[in-house]
Amino acid sequence: MTVIAILGVLLALVLFGFYLSWRATRLHRLHHRVDTARAALDAALSRRLTAVLDLLDADGVEEGGELAEAARAVGTAERDRRDLAESTLSRVLRESLESPEFRGSAERWDGLRSQLTEVEAAAKGVHMARTFYNDAVSDTRLARRSRLVRMLRIAGTAPLPDYFEIDDQPPRIPLLPIGPDTP
Amino acid sequence: MRVGLVCPYAWDVPGGVQQHVGDLAEALIAMGHEVSVLAPVGEADGHGLPDHLVPAGRPVPVPYNGSVARLSFGPRTASRVRRWIAEGGFDVLHIHEPSAPSVSLLACWAADGPLVATFHTANPRSRAMAVGSPALRSAMEKINGRIAVSQAARRTLVEHLGGDAVLIPNGVAVRRFAAAEPLPGWPGEGGSLGFLGRVDEPRKGLGVLLEAFALMAPARPSLRLLVAGPGDPTAALSAVPEHLRERVVLMGLLDEDDKVRAYHSVDVFCAPNLGGESFGIVLTEAMASGAAIVASDIPAFSAVLDGGTAGELFTVGDPVDLAERAGALLDAPERRAALSLSARRAVRAYDWETVAADVAHVYETVLMWDGAGRGRPTGVRLDPGPRAGALLRRGAP
Questions:
Q1: What is the ipTM of this complex?
Q2: Architecture of A24-151 per CATH?
Q3: Taking a contact as any Cβ pair under 8 Å apart, which residues of chain A between 106 and 125 contact chain B?
């Protein structure tokens, strides 16, 4: 009788151990997902900055004004002020590329086509990367709220990840203006 | 890039998700990617299936999300899914409708590595997702990048699972709709209106259009209405006085080629839907065909029509407003030509070439960290399971 009870307890302990291991593996994977998403977000932000600087280079700096200022602010921002600088860049990018003066001159459009395509793609990439990063953060924070994870300290020393909140709405650039004869 | 696409619904039964996966696969292949599609297949003789399709087993009909879906589940399917992942050597796995209890959910469980998922369902009270969400969490939390095909699908996802998704709309194969001969005898001298959709589903709004037609018809003796779509029309037709009914031409369900010709057969295309539309694929098809459009001003349609620049918007459910706007368009050929051109322009955002490029951008984003000096890309592998599992496997051959 006691043998069966002891075996039962042992079996329960082993099963619980496996369950804990499963939970720990899941949490480990979530932390990994946050790390990789953060790296992708940093890469996307620096791709956008490079694209904007290339655009300014090709367009001639004197007309860049506000945009050049916003790009420089991103390049020199302290780590904890970075979200503000990136938001400002998003806003200035929209304002200057969607402004009637910029859209007005067709030659300027034509000469900058490849740089504008890259800026548009890079800005879209920032939006995607930030969405995926915040999504990973939200899943991780939810998993770490669980009582089991908190009591047994399954998360170990990994820091609780923070959301990255910026204005990331990409500019609307109609890159392929079509004539009346193109279907 | 090697991409594995997973479709949860039976490939040989027509449906929105299957169409989406098939079109996406073709667009990705045209961009130079290698693609393999895993889906349940009913008639498993390999006849008429594309080369890149891998059958995942026979589907069984299951009541799911308010209709009957043909899904594949079980140990045999699971082992096929595992083999497909192990042998595929994919850089990224793209799972459609990952919460569907079919090959999609099995693939989520079995895979480890870069995962992208597309959510199609727009159902605020999806019982399957609500009941399943804690159980689904272990599968859903593996997904690196989530895509929703519409704002409604995104809301559904956020309500049930939390987190967020990027919005990439359904594509439309613009080239397939761009040019076609009108059906014989159309559009005719006296003008014509068109409708496409299920005729016995009230929210498609045929009733509103028929009422508007009854208002317009007396003043326009040869105006006709082309109605294409499956279903029993008797209930809707009761809104039209007897003597006008011969001018409502019912075509029934058209095949793909005739559907394209139908869009080119009318002077004004009407989309009188009452709501519940998540996206409006019919509208984008009409735009790709260069139709002059009058559509109800529900949010989904207003968004697709660029707030009214690519087509007229009328007050939803109001036949008088519809009749006025459609009548004004019938009398103004230049205005119709202008709307047709702006529709063709606006629909470019929904062209599969554009949409597939955005999807590929998502793949690059979830793979981007691999290029950031952290060694070689690992690609998609089988999930080794919890670490403690290794203790068991150590003894096994």
A1: 0.87
A2: Up-down Bundle (1.20)
A3: 121, 124-125
